[in-house]
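Batch job 17 of 40 flagged for manual review because the log was empty.
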Amino acid sequence: MTKSMKILRPAIMCFLVMTIVCGVIYTAAVTGIAQLIFPGQANGSIITVTLKDGTQKDYGSALIAQEFTSAEYMIGRPMGTTNLSPVSEEQKALVDERTDWLHTLDPDNTADIPMVLVTASGSGVDPNITPDAAEYQVARLARERGVSGDDVRAIISKYTTDRFLGIFGEPAVNVLKVNLALDGLL
């Protein structure tokens, strides 16, 4: 065996052992534990609905936003991320564009638009909005759906989560779940 092979052999063996331990065994163990303890979350928190004909349909993840643009649906945060400064002209133009769109969608609503409806989240796929952003949309949803505002608020309340352990984070309304409930699917 040559001198260079003697030097390379331990490095190659270490690489192979670490690949098997970290890339195969560890990954399989973590995946297996996640599937055992948290199967819904490990599989993407998919919202599956049983339809009237008995078939099941997947509507998306409760953890990833979907874009809704019709007046009869609750509108979530803008999709896509931005690293623009909050005071930049480009950010102001995006906010103004989204504000104009919301006024076009609901011209009767003269309330202040909650900031969460005109600014993207850090991930760009936040599935939740704040309770005040949901309340901003109640009158439009009730009008478009032909139901009372109290009916819409009851659905929003059902799909609003409180702070984690009562102290961490903020209350959040899951837009997809509210829209599926408004459609009578949840």
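Reviewer: the log was empty due to a logging misconfiguration, but the result itself is present. The mean pLDDT is 91. Unflagging and moving on to job 18.
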